[in-house]
Automatic annotation (TrEMBL):
Residues 60-225 form the F-box/LRR-repeat protein 15/At3g58940/PEG3-like LRR domain. It holds the Pfam family LRR_At5g56370. It comes from the Eukaryota. This is Os07g0105200 protein. The lineage of its organism: Eukaryota, Viridiplantae, Streptophyta, Embryophyta, Tracheophyta. It comes from Oryza sativa subsp. japonica (Rice). InterPro entries: FBL13/AtMIF1-like, LRR_FXL15/At3g58940/PEG3-like.
Length: 416
């Protein structure tokens, strides 16, 4: 009688098999998958991060067999393997599958998802894909729509190819609770909406997410949002020049449009690169008031433009209760310090003027990696002048990168 759950990991194979590790691993999996006796396998984990890329057909055969209702009752599948994967159609019609995780390592062809036809995964609740390649946004949409009970969607280093007939992507199922797009590409090229009414958290990280006017997030409904984009300076200089005649329009306008599409967001985390995009329109930003209660600035650069953007965010957040700002230590000096930003628009002086009572709900404000920069001090001065927050360790703190407390120093107290 076979077991219901297996964890087959090549790293546990004895050392004397190392010279023939691939064939030994394949033989073990063959025996379990094809010769299993009993009611069928319910949980399978396959791990071999250095599996020969020529083994992809064998992996496809394993997945096809595991997804077969005639042989198994698969509920959980975790594949962490080095072969390029060509997923069988049966995997996307496995009616018993509850959790699916596919991870590919060092495969030139990556993971190909054969989901051009109908997807029927009526029980799937957790979907995690790494290095997946979607040939079109329609293919992506087919996959999402075929998972009516999906609660978690986690995509890491995946991409959507942009084609002439590309249509938008919409995540709309009321069952979805968490969406994580980590280090992903291509989603900035197509319209992307999260209209699902019960999303608790959306995490968006990656590069080239705000390059195209008609692409990127158009509408986003979630209680907690993390915009943690991280570009490379050389690529940023390619797609985001100040004067250009390409399809790549102003990244600041596109970033502002994304934020204008927020609905129901109560907690926002935003990276220095996102603020960098917005700093290109710091003189013309016009954010509506929103109901954010927690704001986390993850890596602010030491310049007036970024300080101005943060002040715009604060002025638009009358419900703010908790504010956390971490200053970036390893910022790209070529564009991050005031001396190198002569081409950037001037930050309106009025932004630095406190607005008494504007942050009346603020209860906690902490700044980390404080360097004494005048722009950091300007933000501190605005917050203290616009709120009734007290200078005590429970409500207020300013520390440098060594952990030294500056909260009660004359430099800070002079802001009162």
């Amino acid at each position: 009688m076979g077991m219901e759950a297996y964890e087959l990991d090549a790293s546990t194979i004895p050392d004397h098999h190392l010279l023939d590790l691939d064939s030994t691993f394949a033989a073990i999996v063959d025996r379990v998958v094809f010769n299993h006796s009993g009611p069928g396998i319910k949980s399978m984990s396959l791990a071999h991060t250095r599996y020969d890329t020529d083994g992809d057909r064998r992996v496809t055969a394993w997945l096809d067999r595991l997804a077969s209702r005639e042989h198994h009752r698969l509920e959980r599948l975790d594949v962490n393997i080095g072969a390029a994967l060509h997923t069988p159609a049966s995997l996307f019609r496995c009616e018993t599958l509850v959790e699916l995780r596919l991870v590919v390592h060092a495969a030139a062809r990556g993971l190909r998802l054969d989901v051009d036809g109908a997807v029927h995964l009526p029980q799937l609740r957790r979907l995690c894909l790494e290095h997946a390649g979607f040939r079109s946004s329609t293919q992506f949409q087919n996959l999402i729509d075929g998972c009516p009970l999906l609660e978690l969607l986690h995509l890491r280093f995946t991409a959507v190819a942009r084609r002439e007939d590309t249509v938008g992507i919409e995540i709309r199922s009321p069952s979805v609770r968490r969406v994580v797009l980590e280090g992903c590409g291509g989603y900035g090229m197509v319209p992307f909406e999260v209209s699902a009414p019960n999303v608790e958290e959306l995490v968006l990280s990656g590069r080239n997410m705000v390059a195209v006017e008609k692409g990127g997030v158009r509408r986003l409904s979630a209680r907690k949002v993390s915009l943690l984009m991280d570009d490379k300076l050389w690529w940023y200089n390619v797609f985001a020049p100040f004067h250009h005649f390409t399809a790549f329009l102003n990244v600041g306008t596109n970033m502002s449009r994304i934020m204008a599409g927020f609905h129901g967001v109560l907690e926002l985390a935003i990276s220095g690169w996102c603020i960098e995009y917005l700093s290109k329109i710091v003189d013309s930003m016009n954010l509506p008031d929103w109901g954010i209660e927690v704001l986390r600035v993850e890596g602010m650069w030491p310049n007036q433009g970024q300080a101005g953007v943060v002040l715009h965010l604060l002025r638009s957040s009358p419900c703010l209760r908790n504010l956390f700002i971490t200053n970036e230590l390893e910022h790209p000096r070529e564009i991050s310090i005031d001396e190198n930003r002569e081409q950037y628009p001037a930050t309106p002086e009025f932004l630095f003027d406190a607005v008494p009572g504007r942050l009346t709900h603020l209860r906690r404000f902490f700044m980390f990696n404080f360097s004494g920069n005048r722009n950091e001090i300007s933000i501190i001065k605005f917050v203290l002048g616009s709120s009734s927050i007290s200078i005590n360790p429970d409500q207020f703190g300013v520390t440098d990168y060594l952990g030294n407390d500056w909260s009660s120093t004359q430099l800070i107290l002079a802001s009162l």
